[in-house]
């Protein structure tokens, strides 16, 4: 765990030194999230908060972590780290940790801002918290899987776009229906929307949590199978 | 401590349809520097990666410190240092931050200042890694590979890209580590590096070890040489009657090249012949085989990429 913290600290320093990455992972999600809080989504607070979370999970966690993993592979530091004492899961966790922590912090902060801006208090805080945490975990798993098929930090913007965009589609699909079907939960973003709605309007959290668990296991399995440590291999 | 620190038996490595390493065996004894030589593509780096635990062999067994470098990774890694042929760092970190990061990942690390001083990078400690020259990066690599005071050190072309002074410094560092009991496996394209440092040598060619043994044993394999420019008006049959073999190709190109196992005797024959015929031998050289001669003998057509 100590080694994860050592790696995470360095990765955070790098994130702050890289203006583009810092803007993408810190400033943009906060700005967009505050925007959603202020426009209130026409009184549909579950919709607004879902969008806040999708932006955080998408930009701060998914796209930033994918970019970080690919950049570390490209600058050959993953290769070096793998020759040292830290184990492979520790290295990957260390590189992604800052994005995961920032995702959790922003995921907690933005709904709070929404409540201050007039959203009701969630009825089921645990369900909302599950949406914040679960969405972050899924986004980290997806970053590992996507990084496996991304060769450069520049192309990461391209390879992450389909899933990032799909989460908004899946969430809107789930939010538009009075009852959430298993297919909606399985769609990207659908489970996050269902948990936010459960948080504000009530409903079971187990279905969406199950869907998130499946997403996590599947993306990590893809990463385990296809992740490369050497840009040339 | 008679147990070898590295024991390789029947090692084979296959990438898809290509077999990069085709059944090699060797041992490395404690405190010794073992040099793995060969042309590009001979299988040196693949072999190193297996020893480092970064690649699983397709056949054969590898023990490092009596353990499997891949399966017993957690027990082997704290005792080994690795300098890959190519590895990097995030360019936006400073040299000091890079070493500090590596310290945080290492069980028994040296001090940052101490290791930077060792490789003469103290004055560059606050420079970003991306601003370092190739040679400086290589020295940083060495500082990191040795940071954990390893029992076994793997160095894949440690002095490639270094200027002569930095290379000499690296050699001093390696001799010092050897004196303190570290065992080293090194690959290099610089044959004089192996001649200077290695206790034992293996020359790989197309995935196999063609020659191996102590430096003396390896040099013994190749005949000694006597060379001089072809004197005017001398026909091939008129050359001195040496015990060794005179190269007819070289003769046609205007040189006399004699390969012999009895250097002193044949040299005496040549000198007497020259004296009897009143010939001055131009560019006369007589020498034992160098490692370069052995190397070219193994991979006749392949050039040393250096």
UniProtKB/TrEMBL annotation, chain A:
Keywords: Membrane, Transmembrane, Transmembrane helix. It comes from the Bacteria. The chain crosses the membrane at residues 21-39, 45-70, 90-113, 125-151, 163-185, 205-227. This is ABC transporter permease. The lineage of its organism: Bacteria, Bacillati, Actinomycetota, Actinomycetes, Pseudonocardiales. Signal peptide: none annotated.
From TrEMBL, chain B:
Residues 6-231 form the ABC transporter domain. It comes from the Bacteria. Pfam families: ABC_tran (PF00005). It is found in: Cell membrane. It is a peripheral membrane protein. InterPro entries: AAA+_ATPase, ABC_transporter-like_ATP-bd, ABC_transporter-like_CS, ABC_transporter_ATP-binding, P-loop_NTPase. GO terms for molecular function: ATP binding. Keywords: Antibiotic resistance, ATP-binding, Nucleotide-binding, Transport. PANTHER family: ABC TRANSPORTER ATP-BINDING PROTEIN (PTHR42711:SF16). This is ABC transporter ATP-binding protein. It comes from Actinokineospora xionganensis. The lineage of its organism: Bacteria, Bacillati, Actinomycetota, Actinomycetes, Pseudonocardiales.
């Amino acid at each position: 765990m100590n080694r994860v913290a050592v790696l995470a600290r360095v990765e955070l320093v790098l994130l702050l030194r890289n203006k583009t990455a810092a803007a993408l992972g810190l400033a943009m999600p906060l700005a967009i999230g505050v925007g959603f809080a202020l426009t209130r989504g026409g009184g549909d607070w579950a919709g607004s908060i879902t969008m806040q979370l999708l932006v955080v999970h998408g930009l701060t966690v998914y796209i930033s972590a994918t970019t970080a993993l690919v950049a570390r592979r490209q600058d050959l530091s993953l290769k070096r780290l793998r020759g040292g004492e830290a184990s492979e899961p520790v290295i990957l966790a260390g590189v992604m940790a800052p994005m995961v922590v920032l995702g959790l912090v922003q995921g907690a902060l933005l709904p709070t801002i929404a409540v201050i801006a007039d959203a009701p208090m969630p009825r089921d805080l645990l369900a909302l918290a599950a949406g914040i945490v679960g969405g972050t975990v899924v986004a980290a798993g997806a970053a590992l899987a996507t990084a496996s098929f991304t060769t450069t930090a520049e192309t990461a913007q391209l390879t992450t776009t389909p899933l990032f965009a799909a989460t908004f589609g899946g969430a809107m699909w789930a939010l538009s229906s009075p009852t959430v079907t298993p297919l909606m939960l399985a769609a990207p973003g659908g489970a996050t929307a269902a948990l936010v709605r459960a948080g504000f309007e009530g409903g079971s959290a187990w279905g969406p949590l199950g869907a998130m668990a499946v997403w996590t296991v599947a993306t990590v399995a893809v990463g385990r199978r296809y992740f490369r440590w050497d840009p040339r291999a | 401590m008679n147990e070898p620190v590295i024991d390789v038996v029947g090692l084979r490595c296959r990438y898809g349809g290509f077999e990069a390493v085709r059944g090699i065996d060797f041992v490395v004894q404690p405190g010794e520097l073992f040099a793995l030589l060969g042309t590009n593509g001979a299988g040196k780096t693949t072999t190193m990666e297996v020893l480092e635990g970064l690649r699983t062999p397709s056949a054969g067994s590898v023990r490092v410190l009596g353990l499997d470098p891949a399966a017993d990774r957690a027990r082997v890694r704290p005792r080994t240092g690795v300098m890959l042929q190519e590895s990097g760092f995030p360019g936006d970190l400073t040299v000091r931050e890079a070493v500090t990061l590596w310290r945080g990942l290492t069980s028994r690390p040296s001090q940052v200042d101490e290791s930077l001083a060792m490789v003469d990078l103290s004055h560059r400690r606050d420079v970003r890694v991306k601003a370092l020259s190739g040679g400086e990066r290589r020295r940083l690599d060495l500082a990191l590979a040795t940071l954990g005071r390893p029992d076994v050190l793997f160095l894949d072309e440690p002095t490639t890209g270094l200027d002569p002074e930095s290379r000499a410094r690296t050699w001093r560092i390696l001799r010092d580590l050897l004196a303190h009991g570290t065992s080293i496996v090194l690959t290099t394209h610089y044959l004089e590096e192996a001649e200077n440092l290695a206790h034992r040598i293996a020359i790989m060619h197309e995935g196999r070890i063609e020659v191996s043994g102590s430096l003396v044993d390896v040099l013994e394999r190749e005949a000694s040489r006597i060379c001089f420019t072809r004197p005017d008006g001398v026909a091939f049959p008129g050359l001195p009657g040496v015990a060794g073999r005179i190269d007819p190709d070289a003769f046609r190109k205007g040189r006399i090249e004699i390969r012999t196992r009895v250097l002193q005797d044949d040299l005496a024959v040549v000198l007497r012949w020259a004296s009897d015929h009143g010939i001055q031998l131009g560019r006369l050289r007589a020498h034992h085989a160098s490692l370069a001669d052995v190397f070219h003998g193994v991979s006749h057509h392949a050039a040393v990429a250096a």
